[in-house]
Amino acid sequence: MGGSMRLDKFLTSQNICSRKEASKLVREKRVKINGKFAPKSDIKIDPEHDIIEVEGNIVAYSKFVYIMMNKPKGVLSASNDKNAQTVVDILPDSLKRRDLFPAGRLDKDTTGLLIITDDGDFAHKMLSPKSGVYKAYRALLDRPLSPEGQTSIESGVTLKDGTHYKPAIISFYNENDRSDVVIRITEGKFHEVKRMFLSAGCEVTALKRLSIGSLTLDENLSPGDARSMTEAEKDLVFA
Ligand code: URA
Fold it and tell me: Which residue among the candidates 107, 180, 218, 225 is catalytic per the annotation?
């Protein structure tokens, strides 16, 4: 076979089972490699070419994982941190694997759609201003956004310190409430949404990301919940 990955590691990486369960499945002759029963769970396989079956079902191999999380408040957008709980820490064991990181950061107090992956190229493409991927946020403000404030955010804001934010698209979550705003931006600069609204005299009291590209947060996910994304959902980011 001349493979490059242990069978049990392969099965855990594809979220089929734990390593312990893998050894049990192999012992019970429920795992096949290229049509033959796997002799041991630590045998090396080639994930790109060998056909692995578990209880008769072929395991589709995906090199990278893409996880959708409804980020809760109070959790850091990072892989690990000495002092604070991170979005990777709170993933269920079944989704955990090495090298996961959040593709883009949300502030600690921001909630909503976060993609966690181990695919650096995907994250880079998603975050690159060149890709022009819109991120939509719902922002609750401490006062109604003035029409002038709206116009200024829609034309692009330059702060006193020289930081420039590209034009954003503003709409209102409820027609009659100018303090409940949906804002779409293509950049992701530090505190961008909060600072844009501050420049218009409004403080953001709650911020939730609703979508990235055409991918919207699965509202069945409670804050803190996460699940694997489908291939189609992954493509929606760039649609
Ligand atoms: N803009 C902010 O100010 N905070 C976020 O978390 C995301 C965008």
Answer: 107
